[in-house]
Amino acid sequence: MLPVFPPGKLLNVSERIIFWDFDGVIKDSVDIKTHAFVQLFQPYGPYVAERVLKHHEANGGMSRFDKLPLYLRWAGEEPTEDRVKELCEKFSKAVLQSVIDAPWVPGAQEYIRTNPHLQIFVLVSATPQEEIEKIIQALGLAGSFAAVFGAPTSKKEAIRLTLSRYKIPPHQCLMIGDAIADWDAAMANEVPFLLRRHGTNEKVFENYTGNSVEDFTAL
How far apart are CA 218 and CA 157, in angstroms? Predict the structure, then answer.
C-alpha cells in the first residue's frame, strides 16, 4: 500500500519553474505505450503479457531501458544489450507517430504555448532523449521549453540539474506528473507536486491526498 502523500500545490503565478512530464500530462498517450508493451510480450503467452501490463501501469514513469530487461527475464530470455536495443527500436517505431497524434490533455497545449506567467518550462520524461526531442519538435513545442530531458537522464537528476543551473529554491517550483516516478523525483528534490489524475493511475494514487487536476482548462 502506498503512503499518504503530503499536500501538493496548484499551478499558479508564484512558481518560477514548472517541470512537466509528457505522457499522461501533456498528451493522453499512456494507453498507447501500455498497448505497445503488451504487444511486444504477447508472443510469450498471456501470463507474461498480463504481468507486463500490471507492472507498466503501476510504474508509468519508469524508463523502457529499465522495464525491458525485467520483462525479458520474466519471458525467460537473457536481456542482452543487443536484444534490449532491438526491442527498444521496435517499441519506438510502434509508438512514435501515435504519441504525436494522441489527444492533448485539455488545457495543456494552450498553457504551454502561451506561458501566461512567463515561467521557465522544463520537460522531464522517461522517453529516450532522441525520441522525446523528435516528438516535441513535431508538435512545435521546442521553443516552449528551456530544456528537455529524456532517458537515460533520470527525472530526479533532471530536476536537480535544473535547480542547480537556475539557482531557484525548490519551493518556488512545481512538478506536474501522473506517475509515482514523477512524485518521487519531486520529493527527492523537495519540489512541490501536482498530480494529473486519469483512469490509468487511479489505483496507484488511491492514497494521494495532495492537490490534483484532471485537466488544465481552469488554469
Answer: 30
CATH code of the domain in which 122 resides: 3.40.50.1000
Considering the domain architecture, whether residues 165 and 185 belong to the same structural domain is answered as yes
Query: Which residue is it, cell 496548484?
Result: 10
The answer to whether residue 183 sits within a structural domain is yes
Range of the domain at 66: 30-101
Q: Is 104 helix (H, G, I), strand (E, B) or coil?
A: strand
Q: What ranges in 42-80 are assigned the alpha helix state H?
A: 46-58, 64-74
The single-letter code of the amino acid at 203 is: K
85-141 pLDDT, tens digit per residue, is 999 999 989 899 999 999 999 999 999 999 999 999 999 999 999 999 999 999 999
What pTM does this model have?
0.86
